[in-house]
Design a protein that fits this description.
The chain has 345 residues and is an alpha/beta fold. The chain has three domains: 2-45, no CATH class; 49-162, Medium-chain alcohol dehydrogenases, catalytic domain (Quinone Oxidoreductase, Chain A, domain 1), CATH 3.90.180.10; 166-296, Rossmann fold (3-Layer(aba) Sandwich), CATH 3.40.50. It is 28% helix and 19% strand. Strands 3, 4, 5, 6, 7, 14 and 15 form a seven-stranded mixed beta sheet that branches. It has a six-stranded parallel beta sheet with strand order 10-9-8-11-12-13. Strands 1-2 form a two-stranded antiparallel sheet. Helix 9 links the parallel strand 11 and strand 12. Helix 5 (166-175) crosses helix 6 (190-201). The radius of gyration is 26 Å and the shape is globular. The termini are far apart.
Length: 345
């Protein structure tokens, strides 16, 4: 075994020359790392990709992302898609990939992370500003490469998946939404619209309950049913042939929508609340009366993002009707509730 290894080494030396350290010069340390200096051959330069992958500014598991789209949703600066432009020693496989960056990037090792409470991880990186490049851990990034990619698609709209679509998607997963089950969405912001579109993609029957004329116009474009808060759900269920109990509710946008959901409760219902709201004793009494369940859902766990992206890839979750491209982070959408996304050229 040892003899065969020696013969292999000798054979390599004959072909490539005996290796010695690169001569010391004023060349910076990064260039010296790019050189391999045999005794009888000219220096071999690593490719630019390999050189960047060994960039000493990054920790082994970190990457640098060139931001292509940054959504101005609930957490501006933390709703991002981009392309990996540099990678640490242990993250070289990410070089050049399109990536969706989850709103929350946990450590994955602490007690809260092990229990799935990633929003409360004490090691979350601060991401509060819209920037053109980010240095982040690679562990929970979602690669947007085939099969999780639509050929010829633009990248910037997928920033909407980082939170505006992800939080409602996670809420529907926790609610255990089933095919042909009523999902009533109370709200008029972009999260409510994504909740309705995602519920339909999962085979449920969404109903957006809102008084907003612009939200109603968008739902018509998406072919999603709407009604005002004063109407009963019973007639809609009877019309669609749906069971009258155990409905699933998603509430976003404020106290008024939560109150509407409570007034429409059916026996055995479950409510996912996407906003931090005060819950009063009267609210709890209504939940007890109907034996209903109340869930809080602030963010989406990073492990769920590939399944969310797959809905978009299959054409079941439309993005372009619900996003608007802007050039300045200080700009808002000119057609609320569409989600403004800063697109960097």
């Amino acid at each position: 075994m040892k003899n065969s290894a020696k013969r292999l080494i000798n054979s390599m030396r004959e072909k490539m020359g005996t290796c010695r350290p690169a001569p010391r010069s004023k060349t910076n340390s990064r260039l010296r790392r790019m050189m391999w200096w045999p005794t009888n051959k000219p220096p071999i330069m690593l490719s630019e990709v390999e050189a960047q992958a060994q960039d000493e500014r990054l920790q082994p598991g970190e990457v640098e992302i060139r931001v292509v789209g940054s959504a101005l949703g609930r957490a501006p600066g933390a709703e991002v898609v981009g392309i990996v432009s540099a990678a640490g020693e242990a993250a070289g496989d990410w070089m050049g990939r399109r990536v969706l960056v989850p709103r929350v990037l946990p450590c994955g090792e602490c007690e809260r992370c092990r229990r799935g409470l990633v929003a409360h991880c004490p090691a979350l990186p601060p991401r509060t500003q819209v920037v053109e490049s980010e240095r982040l851990p690679a562990r929970f990034l979602c690669a947007l490469e085939p099969p999780l990619w639509q050929e010829g698609a633009e990248l910037w709209p997928l920033a909407a998946l980082a939170d505006a679509a992800a939080a409602p998607f996670a809420a529907l997963m926790r609610l255990g939404v089933e095919p042909n089950q009523l999902v009533a969405i109370f709200g008029d912001d972009v999260r409510a619209l994504f909740a309705a579109a995602t519920a339909r993609a999962k085979g449920a029957v969404p109903l957006l309950i809102t008084d907003s004329t612009t939200a109603i116009a968008l739902t018509r474009e998406l072919e999603i049913a709407t009604q005002s808060g004063g109407e009963s759900l019973a007639s809609f269920c009877e019309q669609k042939g749906l069971r009258p109990i155990a409905h699933r509710f998603v509430v976003t946008g404020g106290q008024q929508n939560f109150d509407r959901a409570l007034s429409a409760l059916t026996d055995g219902a479950a409510i996912a609340l996407l906003d931090r709201l005060p819950v009063h004793a009267a609210d709890l009494s209504a939940l007890v009366t109907h034996e209903a369940t109340l869930l809080g859902q602030e963010i989406c766990h990073p492990d769920l993002y590939p399944e969310l992206v797959a809905l978009w890839v299959r054409g079941e979750l439309p993005l372009l009707p619900l996003v608007e491209r802007v050039k300045d982070p200080r700009m808002s959408s000119s057609s609320y509730p569409r989600l403004p996304v800063v697109a960097f050229d």
